[in-house]
Write a structure and sequence with these properties.
127 residues; mainly alpha; 0% strand
Length: 127
């Protein structure tokens, strides 16, 4: 079994529907990003907890809306943190997926980070 087979076997099934007419971004969102985020949810949560501890933030003193804003701001403005998260996701791409990703990485990165922000925001109770 090669690396791509191992990844696709372990990443899990597509989450959401994919139609033949869907653009590549929808394919990535439902076939790559969502299953990867689901598979590694616990790790991503721990990564954010570590981020909070390293940055000595006042996250715990914020109300829920402020926490959601903090999460979005952290991922959007902290380039080092965003790149680390992006690297975690990219490491679970197959070679064909990576080649497809490189053609439209800017839009795909936005989708990837938006999905991650949404996931963190809906799981504040786990952080």
């Amino acid at each position: 079994m090669n690396r791509d087979q191992i990844i696709t076997n372990n990443r899990g099934e597509t989450l959401g529907s994919i139609q033949a007419s869907d653009i590549e971004e929808v394919f990535f969102q439902n076939a790559v990003f969502r299953p990867t985020l689901k598979l590694h949810n616990d790790l991503f949560i721990e990564v954010f907890k570590n981020y909070l501890s390293k940055h000595k933030s006042n996250f715990w003193e914020l109300n829920e809306d402020q926490k959601k804003a903090f999460i979005a701001s952290s991922i959007q403005k902290d380039i080092k943190f965003r790149n680390a998260l992006k690297g975690m996701m990219i490491s679970w791409f197959t070679i064909p997926e990576y080649l497809l990703y490189t053609k439209n990485s800017s839009n795909l990165n936005k989708r990837m980070m938006n999905l991650l922000i949404e996931r963190y925001q809906t799981q504040i109770h786990l952080i």
